[in-house]
Amino acid sequence: MSYTKEQESIVLKVLSYKPHQFYEILQVEKSASDSEIKKSYRKLAIKLHPDKNPHPRSSEAFKYLNKAWGVLSDESKKRIYDQTGSDPDSRFAGYDNSEASASGVDPRMFNSPFGGGFGGGGYGGGGSLDEELFNLFFGGAGRGGQTFTFGNNGFTFQTFGNGPSHQHPFFTSNGGRTRRAERQRQRTQQPENVSVLDTIKQLAPLLLFLLVPIFSAIFSDNSSPEYSFNKTSVYNSERSTPRYKVPYYVSKDFERNKDMTKKQIRQFGLKVENQYISDKRSRCTREQTIKNEMIEDAHGWFFTDEEKLQQAQELPMPNCEALRNLNLI
Length: 329
Prior knowledge:
Membrane topology: Single-pass membrane protein
Oligomer: single chain
Subcellular location: Membrane
Pfam families: DnaJ, DUF1977
Protein name: J domain-containing protein
Number of strands: 6
Largest sheet: 3 strands, antiparallel
Helix content: 40-55%
């Protein structure tokens, strides 16, 4: 597929920069605001997207662009990049390879897939693989050099041969694995010391959860009549709530009940009303969430789907409308 001179020019311009020259790739100044960076990204994305630009290297340039956007749109990554000038996603960002060589560290260590490093603090965990790697770079026992022994409580620095052993001043050692094994034995033996009272305390929340509904059913007042918001064969006597005049239906036994005072009838009506409003608010919230998601989906990166937007705007919201009729929203 053929491409225009302008399409080729924008691709080659992006690829002319180094992968970490993020401001140059996005064609913005270092002092650019977040909105300016976002605006420039969208403009370039349209020109570089492989679906829009048939140049054979447009996909590569688009990856450069997305990488730059991923760093400059993230506040923490952007701060690191501005301070170091290095890709914040790479390991040992800002660490100069020449400095590493001068200090005796193999620069190939920067690409180690095992994480960690001097700046990242990745050797505090104490795995055997970490020990082997660390001893590999700093001299192991087998070569008569120095070695680090890791444990959950710290590490011991030892020199084999004529040199003394050194213990890190902020950690205790004496064999991290031995202490870890001791703690495991203590956890294994702990259930033997658990008393009956402790067991009851642990089960108390579960017992409370099971017993409360039972006692509520036993001691609750079952004289309150039931109701329905829809007319049925059982609930066919219409009433309305005291404040908002919400219609609801009760059984004929409710009408015949001479023991209920006016105050009790009003309290019952308020209970029905509060239940109605609570239910409508919950359903209205879900309706509004669905509508917002539809509107957001209609606004794409490159264009707005007018048909989807119209469907979202015309979405029926009966529960919200019911609350609106009661002047509650």
